[in-house]
Design goal:
With 364 residues, this protein is of the alpha/beta class. It has 13 helices and eleven strands. The chain folds into three domains: 91 residues, no CATH class; 49 residues, no CATH class; 200 residues, Rossmann fold (3-Layer(aba) Sandwich), CATH 3.40.50. Helix content is 40%, strand content 18%. The strands form two sheets. An eight-stranded mixed sheet has the order 6-5-7-4-8-9-10-11, with helices on both faces. Strands 1-3-2 form a three-stranded antiparallel sheet, with helices on one face. α11 links the parallel β8 and β9. α4 packs antiparallel against α5. The longest helix is centred in the N-terminal third of the chain and has 19 residues. The relative contact order is 0.12. The structure holds guanosine-5'-diphosphate (GDP) and magnesium ion.
Length: 364
């Protein structure tokens, strides 16, 4: 077994280094937190069993397969170990070092489901920036880039995410909003989820009603044809299918000849999923290039801590907030006040009380 010890200012950073340098199969053997020159330092010891098979292959690869054998078990173990480490670190949060307001806000967020890793991170941000409010720190941790021409100049937009999360509905709503602002805009839909009957009919129906170009692509040849047919459009939505349990978005893009397409990818997620399930999706739907998170089914969720967890885990900005099943008045372009009102006051973007312009003051 190869054993290495890593030190750093945050456990998140150390875990990322362990994963990058030793691979996802590394197992945490020990951890400790200590003070050095008045600063909190973290030390994590990790080990990896180098068996003959994995020693011959680069980390994370396997001939003829996207994942090494037993990868998903290792990944699950890894996530559990990670949570345990952060649970151990939680006592390192000394609430009495925070102001009463900061304490109330942090405790509230923990009840709303922010992960231990995010709680520790926020705590460290608050200590590092004395006098700053919780919202100031959170804004630095949760990037926002609202949907619209200003933030998203790309022509091609891939809508990705698990089945039923609202990819097709969201793309239609984005397109309808765009059309309202620019009635002459040419908008196209490439339905790559066209093997499922119901969603296909809905999309075709609305595309025809709204005068959007509608194309279908279930393989690389028809995708290439569809991309060519839609090149005059100002805005093209590629509606991707949900992936099987072992599929990844980058594999799907490669299989459809989309690896080099200069596009934005919007990951459609719902806070109804959390914990291990969400981590599993984020791992499989990882993507390169400009990308965002669109949160859907907000009207059905009871708490919104996962919006912060996912932002911290992926670094991706939130672009849209969907809060109803209708095509109209159920999707808002994301803004910081809308997000913080949702998290701290559970106000949906469409709530009359949520349409005020001020930002909520957590702990007030
Ligand atoms: N309640 C609620 N339903 C939604 C929301 N977004 C989408 N839906 C509904 O969820 C179902 C699945 O949406 P769809 O766009 O077909 O999902 P897809 O499989 O990801 O393309 C449809 O009945 C939508 O009307 C939302 O924010 N809230
Ligand atoms: Mg769909």
């Amino acid at each position: 077994m190869q054993v290495r010890t890593f030190t750093g200012a945050s456990s998140q950073e150390i875990l990322a280094r362990i994963k990058a340098e030793m691979g996802p199969e590394a197992v945490i053997i020990g951890n400790r937190t200590f003070k050095k020159n008045g600063e909190i330092c973290h030390e994590i010891t990790a080990g990896i069993d180098r068996n003959p098979v994995s020693a011959q292959q680069p980390v994370g690869t396997m001939p003829g397969d996207g994942m090494p054998s037993g990868w998903s078990d290792w990944h699950k173990d890894w996530l559990q170990i990670k949570e345990q480490i952060f649970a151990l670190m939680k006592p390192a949060i000394q609430m009495d070092r925070l102001t009463p307001r900061q304490r109330v806000a942090l405790e509230y967020l923990q009840r709303e489901g922010i992960s231990d890793a995010v709680a520790v991170d926020l705590y460290k941000h608050l200590l590092a920036q004395p006098g700053s409010s919780v919202l100031e720190c959170l804004c630095g941790m949760v990037p926002v880039q609202g949907w619209g021409a200003g933030g998203w100049p790309q022509r091609w937009h891939i809508m990705a995410g698990p089945f039923g999360n609202g990819k097709t509905t969201t793309a239609l709503r984005y397109a309808l909003q765009w059309r309202q602002r620019d009635p002459d805009a040419r908008i196209a839909f490439i339905n790559a989820d066209c093997l499922r009957g119901n969603g296909r009919l809905v999309l075709r129906h609305w595309a025809e009603l709204s005068d959007f170009l509608y194309l279908e692509a279930s393989d690389p040849a028809s995708m290439e044809k569809a991309l060519r047919a839609s090149r005059e459009a100002a805005l093209v939505f590629i509606d991707a299918p949900g992936l099987g349990r072992h599929g990844t978005l980058s594999e799907w893009r490669a299989s459809m000849g989309l690896t080099k397409l200069k596009c934005a990818t919007h990951l459609v997620l719902t806070p109804l999923l959390s914990g291990v399930q969400m981590d599993h999706f984020l791992e499989r739907y990882r993507t390169e290039g400009p990308a965002s998170i669109i949160w859907t089914h907000l009207d059905e969720a009871a708490s919104y801590g996962s919006l912060v967890n996912v932002a911290c885990a992926t670094g991706l900005p939130v672009s849209g907030l969907s809060y109803g099943s209708e095509l109209k008045e159920s999707l808002a372009s994301a803004t910081e006040p809308l997000i913080w009102r949702l998290i701290f006051k559970r106000q949906l973007p469409g709530d009359p009380a949520g349409i005020a312009t001020s930002t909520p003051q957590p702990g007030a």
